[in-house]
Amino acid sequence: MSLAPGDHLRRSFLYRELAALDALFDEVNGHAAAMTCGGDTAQEIARARSLGLCDLSALRRVGYKGWNTAAWLAAQGASMGAESNRAYAQADGTRIARLAPGEALLLGTLHGGGALIDQLGAAWSMAHADGCFQVPREDVSCWLSVSGEHAAAMFAKLCGVDLRPAKFPLHAIAQTSVARLNAIVIRRDVGETLAYDLLTDIASAVYLWRALLDAMAEFDGAPVGLAAIRGLAGPQPSEG
Amino acid sequence: MKIINCPLNGPRNAQEFVHGGEVVAHPDPHRCSDAEWADFVFMEENRAGVVREWWCHVATAYWFIAERDTVKDEFLRTYDPSELFRDRVEFTRPDPPPDPDPPLDPDPPLDPDPPLDKEA
Amino acid sequence: MPNRMPEPAGLLLDRSETVEFSFEGRTYAGYKGDTVASALLANGVGVLSRSFKYHRPRGPLTMCGQDSNTLVQIGHVPNRLADQTTVAPGMTVRAQNYWGSLENDRLALLGLLHRFMPVGFYYKAFHKPRALWPLWEKVIRRLTGLGTIAPDAPHGYFDKAYLFPDVLVVGGGPAGLAAAIQAADAGGEVLLVDENRALGGALNYARFDADGALADQRKAMLLRELQARPNIQVMSDTLCNGWYADNWLALVRGNRLYKVRARALVLATGSYEQPLIFHNNDLPGVMLGSAVQRLIKLYGVRPGSRAVVATANSDGYGVALDLAQAGVEVACIVDLRADPPADELTAAAARRHLPVLVGATVWEAEPEGRNMGVRAARIARITGEGTCAASADSFACDLIAMSVGYTPAAPLVYQARGRVRYDEESAMFALAELPAHIFAAGSLSGAFNLDAALEEGYRAGWQAAGDAGFGFGPEPACVNPKDAVGRTHPWPIFRHPKGKDFVDFDEDLQVHDLENALTEGYEHIELLKRFTTNGMGPSQGRHASVPAVRLVSKATGAAMDETGNTTSRPPVGQVKIGHLAGRAFEPVRYTAMHFRHLELGAKMMPAGLWLRPEYYGAAPTRSEAIRAEVKSVRENVGLIDVSTLGGLEVRGPDAAEFMNRMYTFAYLKQPVARARYVMMVDIGGVIVDDGIACRWHDDHFYVTATTSGADAVYRTMLWYNAQWRLNVDVTNVTAAYAAVNIAGPQSRAVLEPLCEGVDLSKEAFPYMGVREGHVAGIPALFLRVGFVGELGYEVHVPASYGEALWDALMAAGQSHGMRPFGVEAQRLLRLEKGHIIVSQDTDGLTTPHEADMAWAIAGKKPFYVGMRSVSLQAEGRLTRKLVGFEITDRAAPQPKECHLVIRGDEITGRVTSVAFSEALEKVIGLAYVASDQADEGSTIEIKVDGGERVPAAVVKLPFYDPDGARQEM
Q1: How far apart, in Å, are the Cα atoms of C393 and each of C361, C362, C897?
Q2: Which chains touch C (3 or more CB pairs under 8 A)?
C-alpha cells in the first residue's frame, strides 16, 4: 500500500512529479519516498542500468564547513582524505565528500541510514563550535541520482565538464554548472552500474528534474524509484 | 571559450567564473586623502600587460587570484588568496571615540522603526 | 532527366529511388542523394536565383555550398544552399529575390540603372530631401532581403551537446583522413568531422592521374584504415563553424550544435578554387572546374553539351578529361599560361585530341537569351597583366569551366589567430604560423600533390596526438614536394570596358567598382571592404577577397603581403538562430509552497529566478483581489510566502565584528534573541542591499537579504573575508528555509494554538524579538518584524517542511477568515508605512542620506564598507531626496512609477512607488525630488500620461500608523 507524501510533514520538492508517474511511496527518514515510479522493480532496475533518474531527497545528508572542519571530523573518528573534490567512503556506508579544504558534505546510505551523520549531529553544537559549522544539507540541496550506461552522454547535453567514466574516476567530484544551475556531481557507481549523485539548490528541483528528463529522452531514460537503485547494488559480493 | 585553471576545481570553462576586478590595496579610509579615496573607488589601472585580478568560481563561491597577460589574453598563474592575504586585517580610527560602540542603537522601545523583511 | 549520365555515374546517388519535388511551381524528378541543384541541372534547369543588386540570373558556381548563387527557399526556411541540400519527396523549392517570376524578374531593370548606382552610392544618395526618407525606406525594404520568414512556421527542437576528443580533425579529405588514422594509432580519442555527406574530399571528384583511378584507390585504402580504428569517431554532414579560445570549436549538425573542447586540433579544410574574372563571368553555365567534376562524379550530371575550359594549371586538364569522358564535347582548353609545362594530364588531353590554346583567356561570355545561360565564349590572346588583344575568337559552348587557381580555406586559421602571408612564388596566400595546439595539412597548408597531402596528414596527426599527451613512434616523414607552385594564376582579372566582370557575385561588384573606390581613396584593404561591401555577402569573400587584394596591391604599389587580407570571424558557414538559442536552459526557482499558490488561483510573477504570487484571483479581478488582500491584513489576518528572501548564516568568534564591517549599523552589542535592521552600501557609498539580522548566539547571526541581491551579498562577503581573514564562516541558506509572514491584528490568535516552546505574548516576545520553537510539530524560527505595519510574525522552517507549515496555518486561519496575500498587496502595505524597497526606490546612485536612511549609520564605529564615501556624502550637498507624497484630489489622474517630477522646464525627480491607499483614502507614493522641494508641505508637480501635471504634497513618513502601535502590540 502506498503512503501519501501529503500526509507527511517533510516532503520532497518532487513529490508531485513522482505522484504523476503513479509512484508507490514508502517511509524513509520521515519522508514518503518513491520506491517505484510506475513500473515494477525489475523493469526499473533494467532502466537504471541503461539510464534512470531517481529522487534521493529522503536520504540523510549534512554539511560541515569552516577552517577547522578537517580536524574536527578527524577528532570525531570520521576519515576524510587530503584531496578536495573527492568522496571518501566510511565504515558505516556514509560517504564524506570533501568539497574544499574547509567544507565536507556527508551523504548517507541508500537505505536511509546515516550513523556517522547522527553521531556528528549529536557531537556538534553552536555553543562549542570551533571553526566548524553545520550546514542543513537536507534542506539546502535536493539530491538526485543519474545512473546507467548513457549517463555521461546525457550529462554532455547539460554540462561542460567531461564526466565520462574513463576521465572521471569513481568518487571524483565536479562542482560546476548543470543546466545552468550550480551543482555538485559525484561519481558513485552502484554495483557494476555507472551512477552519479547530483545535488543542486532545492528550489530548482522541479526545473532540474524536467531538464534532465528532456535530456534523457534521446536515450529512453526515465525516472526510477529508490528500490531500483538499491537493486543495482545487488547482493553483497562474497569475494572481492 | 577560454579555460581558467581554478585552484580548487581545476581547469574549467570561463563561463563558470565571474571577474572581480583588479587586486588593489585598499587605502586606509580614515587616513588617505580624498584624491586617493576617489582613485580607489572610481579608477582602474586597466594595464596592457600582466595584471593581478580577482576571479570567483560561481558554483562554489570560491574566490581566487589570477595573473593574466591582458595583451596575449593568457592566464599565467592562479592561486589561493591566502598567498597574498595571510594576516588578519584590523581597522582603527585616528580619533577613536570614548565608546566605539555607543548606545546609539539602543534596544526597543527606543529602537527607531526600521523597515524589515525586505523584498526586491 | 536530359542531362543525367548513365549508371554507374553518381557516387552519392541511389538510383533505386526517384524523388519528386517542385521548383518554382513545376515538378521535377531526381534521385535519392541528389541535391536540389544537381537534380535541377539534371533536368536542364540552370537558373536558380537572381543576384542581389542587378537581379542577374545565377546558377551554381561551386557545387559545394561555397557560393551563394544557389540560395533558395525550401518550405518555410529561406536561404538554403541548393547545392548542399538533398532533395526529399514533396519538397517545395522557390527561388529568391525576384519580382514577377524567376524567368522574368521585373527588377532586372535595375541592371539598366547601374550607372546611377555606383559602388557606395547609398552613402551619397538619399540624403536629401529628408522628407523622402519614409518613401525610400519602404521601397528599399521591399527590394532587399533574401527569402521570406513564415511567422507561423513550426518550431523545431534544437539542442546542444559537449564533446571532448583528444584530437579533433576538421576535414575528411586525404590529409584529414591520414591525420585521423595516425592520431588514433597513438591512443586517445579522435573526432573527425567533414561538412559533406561522404568522406573523401577531393578524392571523390578530382582527377590526379591520367586514367583517373588513383583517387579511388587512395580513398578505399584510407577508409579501410579509418574503419579499423574504433577510437575514431566520424561525423559527416557536420560543419565546423567557428574556433574559439583554447580549442573550443562549434560544430553544426542537423538541429544540434556540438560544443567541442579538443586538446589538439588538425585543420585539413582544403582550399577554395577561385573564379576567372571576365565579362559575364556570372552567367548560369559558368562554373568552377571542381564544380564540373562534382556534378559528373557525385551526381552523374552532364553540366553542359559543349564546353570551354579556362585553366592556368594542370587541374583544368583533368576537368577537360572528365568532361570528355562524360560525353561533353570539349570545344577548347584555354590555358592562360604562355608555356604550360607538360605532365601526365596534358599528355592525356593531347592523346584525346582536345584543342588547346595557350597564352589566352576567355575575354567574354556571350549570353543565351536574357542572360539565362552561355551561348559562346570569346577567347583572346593575353597581352599583359589583365589585358588582351583587340580581336577575340568566338567558340560556341553552353558551359565555361574555370580552373585558374586556389586560396586556402583558412577561416578557422584566422579565427585562431594564425598568421597568413602571401607567397609570391605560388601566387597564393599561405599559412605562415599556427598557434600552439593547432596543426595543418593538405592543400590548406599548400600541399596539392596527393602524396604530399597524405604525408602531411600523417605527420599532423602524429604531432597533434603528441601534443594531446599521446606520444607514439617516430615522426612521419614528408618527402614529396607540395606542388603549390604553378596552380594559381597571379592575375586572373580581365577588366572589360562594358563591365559585368564580377569580383564579388554576392554583392554584384565589378572590377571598376573596386577601382572607383580605390580612386576615391579607400586604399586600405579593410576600408575597401567596408566601403564596397566586397566579401561581406554570404560567401564571405571566399572568391572576392583575393582579387580585391590584388587590385589594391596594384593600385597602391604595395606588395601583396604588405596589403594583407581581411580576417575571418565565426560563423564559417550558415547557422540558425535555433542552433544558438535552443535548447535554452532557464532555471526557475519554486518555493516549497509553490503548488499551493497555484491551487489557490494565484497569478504568479517572476522575482529574480523565483516565482511569487502577485495576487490571488483571475486577471479581470486584479485590483479587487489586491484591495481585498490589503484589507484583510489591516483588519483581520493575512498570510504571505516570503521564502524567496536571501538567508545567510554568519558564525564564529568574529561574527559580530564581520557584521559591523559589512553593514552600516552597529552589531557588536546587539543582544541575543533580537533582530536589527541591516543596510549594505558599496565602496562608493551607494545602497546595495538591506534586510534584518537575528542574533541567535554571541557568535551566530542569521541575516536576510533581498531576493535578487542574496547571491551578490554572499559573494561580496566572501570576497571581503578572503582579504580580512577574520575568524568567521558565511553560509548561504537562502533556499534551505521556507518562510511565511502571518500579519494582521488576528495573527497572534491564529498562530498561538499551533505553537510549542514559544510564548507569543507581547511581554514574552516583544516587537523586534526572535525566538525558536515549534509550529504544528515543525521546528521553527520566529521573527517579530513589521514590514507591513501590523502585528505579525515571520516563521522560518526547513524548506522540506514548508508546504506542511502552510497547510497547518491555512487550516488554522480558516475560522478567522485568513486570506493569503501576494506581492502586490505587500507592496501597498509597506508603502503605507513608508518603507523603501532596494532597487525599486533606490537606484544605482542612491545614498543613505538621499533615502533618509542616515539613522541606520553607526558613524562612530571603526569601519564599515563604504564608510569614507558616506562621510564625504554627508559633508557634501544633497542634490535630491527621496520623500513621501500624497494626492488628495480624488479626481486627479494617478501617477505611475517613473513618472517625472517637473518644475518649470526642469526634471527634478521621479516617482518610485505609488498606489491608492484605501485605508487613508488618498494616493500615496515615494518620489525623488530636488533637495529644496523636500520639506514637508512643499508642492511638487508630477507629469502623467498625456502630459497633464498633477500637483502632490510632500508629507512626512510613514503615512499609516505613525506611532507604530499596531505592529508593536
Answers
A1: 11, 9, 80
A2: A, B
- In B, residues 62-81, which contact A (CB 8 Å cutoff)? 62
Chain B residues touching residue A174 (CB < 8 angstroms): 9
A160 contacts in chain B (CB < 8 Å): 12-13, 15-16
d(CA C307, CA C800) in angstroms, rounded, equals 79
Beta-carbon contacts of residue C1 (< 8 Å; ≥ 6 apart): C29, C30, C39, C42, C43
Check pLDDT > 80 for residue C114. Answer: no
Q: Is C113 on the interface with B (CB under 8 A)?
A: no
Beta-carbon separation of B96 and C836 below 8 A: no
Tens digit of pLDDT for each residue in C38-65? Answer: 999 999 999 999 998 889 999 999 999 9
What class is the A61-138 domain? alpha beta
What are the Cα distances from residue C861, in Å, to B87, B98, B105, C189, C657?
A: 22, 11, 12, 62, 11
| CATH class for the domain made up of C275-404 | alpha beta
Q: A157 vs C162: CB contact, 8 Å cut-off?
A: yes
- Classify residue C769 by its DSSP letter: B
DSSP string, C296-328: HHHH-B---SEEEEEESSSHHHHHHHHHHHTT-
If you search the block for the grid coordinates 517545395, which residue do you land on? Answer: C92
Residues from chain C contacting residue B107 (CB–CB below 8 Å): 671, 674
**pLDDT (0 to 100) of residue A237:** 43
The class of domain C646-735 in CATH terms is alpha beta
Tell me if C1-149 shares its fold with C275-404: no
pLDDT of the residue at B111: 37
- Provide the whole-model pTM: 0.93
Nearest 5°: the CA angle C282, C287, C289 is 150
| Domain range C499-570, its CATH number among 1.10.260, 1.20.58, 3.40.50, 1.10.10 | 1.10.10
Q: How many residues does chain A have?
A: 240
CB-CB contact of C33 with C13 (8 Å): yes
For residue C119, name the pLDDT band (cuts at 50, 70, 90): confident
Please list every residue in chain B whose beta carbon sits closer than 8 Å to the beta carbon of residue C964.
Answer: 113
The yes-or-no verdict on residue B118 having pLDDT over 60 is no
Residues 22-51 of B with CB under 8 A from A: none
Q: Which of residues 719-758 of C touch B (CB under 8 A)?
A: 719, 722-726, 732, 741
Whether residue B11 lies within 8 A of chain A, CB to CB, comes out as no
- Ordered by where they begin, the domains of chain B are 3-82 (3.30.2270.10)
How high is the pLDDT of residue A1?
Answer: 66
Task: Note whether C778 contacts A: Cβ–Cβ < 8 A.
Answer: yes
Alpha carbon distances (Å) from C716 to C319, C682, C722: 68, 10, 10
Select C159-272+407-467's CATH number: 3.40.50.300, 3.40.50.1100, 3.50.50.60, 3.90.1310.10. 3.50.50.60
Choose, out of B75, B110, B118, the residue to mutate when testing the contact with C (most C CBs < 10 Å): B118
* A160–B13 CB contact, under 8 Å: yes
Residues in A closer than 8 angstroms to B81, CB to CB, are: none
Please tell me the distance in Å from C536's CA to the nearest CA on chain B.
25
What are C269-314's pLDDT values in tens digits?
Answer: 999 999 999 999 999 999 999 999 999 999 999 999 999 999 999 9
One CATH from 3.30.450.20, 3.30.70.660, 3.90.1530.30, 3.10.20.440 for C1-149:
3.10.20.440
Q: What is the dotted CATH code of the domain comprising C599-610+622-643+736-830?
A: 3.30.1360.120
User: What are the residue boundaries of the structural domains of chain A, listed by start?
Assistant: 61-138
* ipTM rounded to 2 decimals: 0.96
Angle at C432 between CA C428 and CA C435, to 5 degrees: 140
Residue C665 to residue B37, Cβ atoms within 8 A: no
C802-841: per-residue pLDDT in tens? 999 999 999 999 999 999 999 999 999 999 999 999 999 9
Question: Which among A35, A41, A38, A30 has a CA at the least distance from the CA of A54?
Answer: A35
